[in-house]
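Changelog entry

Holo records now carry the ligand SMILES as an explicit input line rather than a separate metadata file. Below, a converted record for flavin-adenine dinucleotide, shown in the new format.
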Amino acid sequence: MEEKMSNTKTIQEAAREVKVCREADVVVVGGGPGGHSAAIAAARSGARTVLVERYGHLGGMSTGGIVIQIPHMSDGTEEQQIIGLTQEWLDRLDEVGGCLHPKRDEIGSSDEKLVSYWQRFMGNTVRGRIKQTAWVDPELLKCVLNDMVEESEVKLFLHSWGAQVIVDKNKVQGIIFESKSGRQAILGKVVIDGTGDGDLLPLAGAEFDGELDPKLRSSMLALVFRLGNCDYQKLCDFREREPERYQGLMAELARVAGTRLLPLPSPRNDVLWVNNWIPNLNCMNVEDVTTLEVEMRKMMLRGHEFMKKNIPTFENSFILDTASQTGTRGGRRLVGEYIVTQDDLETGKKYDDAIAVIPRLRPVTQDDIRAGKELPEDTAHIQIPYRCLVPVKVEGLLVAGRSFSSDMAANNMVNLIPHCIAMGQAAGTAAALAVKGDVNVRDIDIRALQDSLTKQNVPLPGVPSTVSKA
Ligand SMILES: Cc1cc2nc3c(=O)[nH]c(=O)nc-3n(C[C@H](O)[C@H](O)[C@H](O)COP(=O)(O)OP(=O)(O)OC[C@H]3O[C@@H](n4cnc5c(N)ncnc54)[C@H](O)[C@@H]3O)c2cc1C
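Structure line, unchanged by the conversion:
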């Protein structure tokens, strides 16, 4: 690895005039699960909304990152805890044949045949019962997310990098973005950081914590790739028939590739996505993400060669694609009005300002799930408070997604796609309420927020919601 930049020289950038291309109520930067959901919820709640995304498509990690498992929406009972916009993603994907998941009436079932079918898909069973986890087609999801934006009348800027936050006397006034059209400003009453890495936090002067524990999953980078011309069921047959040989081959694969590679299913039996975990690189450092992109491709080539030669199913496989978005699992975390801690999650802490309820997720790793480690049935669910989306000092700013205010361990447990969608849905709804009531985001009527979320089919404590479609 080359030596990192050590130059400490600085230059002064000249001040310049920037064209205001848009004025809006709510401006969302980042169109991943958190940001997209925030924009949709804000627009549907009546706010004039703009969404700015650095790539040419929406979905963040769930499309461009090829992270195509939307897991743990239910807890093994017949009830589904995460519904809201996540369910809308699934319903819309179902309509275009872009999603594989248990049917509504299978959730909670202990039918042996069903359980043994879904056990092959990691994350679809718990305590011998079916739980809701979906496997999605990233290309069809990109189309679905565009449709949602268009129908909700969100003004969309793609290929646009959120580069600066406009702040006046501690109040955020809008953002500046860079694109092929140059540098332009969008003014907004509320700005939502949906960048995942919390890119806007330092620019807005908001307090944040960027520390990462190298032992945690959230500090590991990845470059996901997909393999075509596979046969997932054949791989499962082999894994079940010869578990020790399979484990031995996976260990050898990790040694040869130089990193752990885990093939996972997709909605198509002939396509697999390969997850990986690269330690000791920081997603907020441009040299580290460059190293990741270059080195990981070498590991992919070595790993794929080994898989073709040694693991049944991959004999005639080919590299279908690599993720356009670097796999970052954790970045800057807001210091918000409330910091969610691991202890809160472990003890099932309850909040008056709960905006989401999610099934508790220990075990969280695929290894734990495969090893059959499970929670006792009576484990309390996790609640997420609105205050973890609100910065302590800066006004007019919210976060949506994995940069929510949390300690490292809590963030490691609760930053999955459905969690980020839920936080985004709450952030967008809250932003629209703040604009409507002409109040600061920290002063909105929490009961009105919860009522609105309940109407959007988000289950909250004491107010169950229903999945409308099978
Ligand atoms: C390899 C890997 C495997 C994972 N496995 C799973 C899994 O199986 N299931 C699961 O649920 N979760 C999984 N996760 C976690 C999950 O994918 C993320 O935590 C989640 O996607 C975070 O959502 P988000 O909206 O906060 O951020 P992201 O998904 O990162 O979206 C952020 C969006 O903001 C855009 N953006 C960023 N900066 C800017 C900027 N400055 N200007 C404009 N746009 C910007 C990005 O392009 C992107 O579209 C995994 C993550 C990784 C990396």
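Spot-checked after migration. The two ends are 52 Å apart (CA to CA). The pocket of flavin-adenine dinucleotide is lined by residues 29-35, 52-55, 60-62, 65, 67, 69-71, 161-162, 194-196, 199, 222, 224, 275, 325, 327-329, 401-402, 415-417, 420 (CB under 6 Å).
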